[in-house]
Write a structure and sequence with these properties.
Blueprint: H1 2-10, H2 12-31, H3 41-48, H4 59-64, H5 68-71, H6 80-95, H7 97-104, H8 107-138, H9 157-184, H10 189-199, H11 202-213, H12 215-237, E1 239-246, E2 249-251, E3 254-256, E4 260-266, H13 273-289, H14 297-305, H15 312-333, H16 336-345, E5 348-349, H17 357-392, H18 402-425
Antiparallel strand pairs: 1-4, 1-5, 2-3
InterPro entries: SecY (IPR026593), SecY/SEC61-alpha (IPR002208), SecY_CS (IPR030659), SecY_dom_sf (IPR023201)
Family: Belongs to the SecY/SEC61-alpha family.
Transmembrane segments: 18-36, 68-95, 116-136, 156-178, 190-211, 217-235, 256-277, 313-334, 374-392, 398-416
Length: 433
């Protein structure tokens, strides 16, 4: 493995790409610590270090920003607006026929959809920046911790406007950095930036476990984490291969087809999206309750059952939402009828299954059955931090679970595969054996 990494850095073109990727990642991490204009940086640091801090509603966004959200840095919004814009654009393909038509037009249509995603990212960034500034002014950003209400030094309209523009511009810069990695570096740029944000929280999480629970609990957590990583890698690489046979056909004087291949249907086709959807939907009641009367019955009910993850009702709702969104997202992203039509157009068929509608029904049957264990697996992984909260009181400090481990393992595997394929193109032995 080490010799393969050394060969990768000895290859001039690949070395240039790797160093460029590392340089962009360094710029991204540096921007996470540069304070936005008009922020009381010293007061923010004291609030972040406060033992009373509960991230609550902003935990997921703070995770994807690499801790920049609570730092109120220029990259406070992180990559979350782009993720939301990408998901919305993908879901709109079902509602707006024009988007579906662009998706089928190849590279030109994809470029147009990418442009729409950029515009939507800036719009969502502006909305999120306004919400973040309003939350910071009210003191709700740090859960109404004492002394964390006056974080903005310049409270004038000019100061607030400059702060919102800076945060929105930070989102646009992050989007540009991710695209530069995709074009000139190694791997998918946006995924690598998310990976960097999530992985940056691991050292502090480990340190917090050692300081609060001791070395014995830390060793147990690391051993459990290694087992979880192995299981996640196993499931992420698992797939059902549906065999496909292509009939021979004559085009002019040449014969094409007659080959055998397969359709890979992964156990976890939805990735980390259902976990994001489920956690975001569960955050909505808590967010709404902040605008209500703290003494009212419905606000107290939400605070008791839907705010912390240690309540059985919260866990059950979280698990069921993940299962539902897994089926929902897979149904949108994988269209059995479209796959069956393409196979029929090029003379392909599944052995024992007639082409056309029977093939679509068979693919839908296989997809429905394989999505069930995939959804249960996602629900189980997402419940690990909540179980850790109950057992060792380490929800925020437990890195091996939920979105963290899914992102780290998934992005890591894809990046290693891309490096491996580029090395094999140059007749070198790859990273994977």
């Amino acid at each position: 493995m080490l010799s393969a990494i050394a060969r990768a850095f000895r290859t001039p073109d690949l070395r240039r790409k790797l160093f460029f990727t590392l340089a962009i990642i360094s710029v991204f991490r540096l921007g996470s610590f540069v304070p936005a204009p008009g922020i009381d940086y010293k007061q923010v640091q004291e609030c972040v270090a406060s033992p009373e801090l509960t991230q609550g509603v902003f935990g997921l966004v703070n995770l994807f920003s690499g801790g920049a959200l609570l730092q109120l840095s220029i990259f406070a919004l992180g990559i979350m607006p782009y993720i939301t814009a990408s998901i919305i654009t993908q879901l709109l393909r079902v509602v707006i026929p024009r988007f579906e038509q662009l998706h089928k037009e190849g590279a030109a249509g994809q470029a147009k959809l990418t442009q729409y995603t950029r515009y939507l990212t800036i719009g969502l960034g502006l909305l999120n920046a306004t919400t973040l500034v309003a939350t910071a002014r009210s003191g709700a950003l740090f859960g109404n911790v004492a002394g964390c209400t006056n974080l903005i030094v310049d409270d004038s309209w000019i100061g607030i406007g400059l702060l919102i523009i800076t945060l929105t511009a930070g989102t646009g810069l992050i989007m540009w950095l991710g695209e530069q990695i995709t074009e000139r570096g190694v791997g998918n740029g946006m995924s690598l930036l998310i990976f960097t944000s999530v992985a940056s929280a691991f050292p502090s999480s480990f340190g917090a476990i050692v300081s609060s629970q001791g070395w014995d609990v830390f060793v147990i957590v690391v051993l459990i984490g290694l087992v979880i990583v192995g299981l996640v890698v196993f499931v992420e690489q698992s797939q059902r291969r549906v065999p496909v046979q292509y009939a021979k056909r004559m085009v002019g004087r040449r014969m094409f087809g007659g080959t055998s291949t397969y359709i890979p249907i992964k156990v976890n086709m939805a990735g980390v999206i259902p976990v994001i959807f489920g956690s975001s939907l569960l955050y909505l009641p808590t967010l709404i309750s902040q605008f209500g009367d703290p003494q009212s019955a419905w606000v107290q009910w939400i605070a008791q059952y839907l705010t912390t993850g240690d309540h059985p009702l919260y866990m059950a709702l979280y698990f069921l939402l993940i299962v539902f969104f897994t089926y929902f997202y897979v149904a949108i992203t994988f269209n059995p009828e479209e796959v069956a039509d393409n196979m029929k157009k090029y003379g392909g068929f599944i052995p024992g299954i007639r082409a056309g509608r029977p093939t679509a029904e068979y693919l839908n049957y296989v997809l429905t059955r394989i999505t069930l264990p995939g959804s249960l697996y996602l629900g189980f992984v997402a419940m690990i931090p909540l179980i850790a909260l109950v057992l060792i009181d380490a929800n925020q400090n437990f890195p091996f679970g939920g979105t963290s481990i899914l992102i780290v393992v998934g992005v890591g595997l894809e990046t290693v595969k891309q490096i491996d394929s580029q090395m094999q193109q140059r007749h070198y032995e790859g990273l994977l054996r």
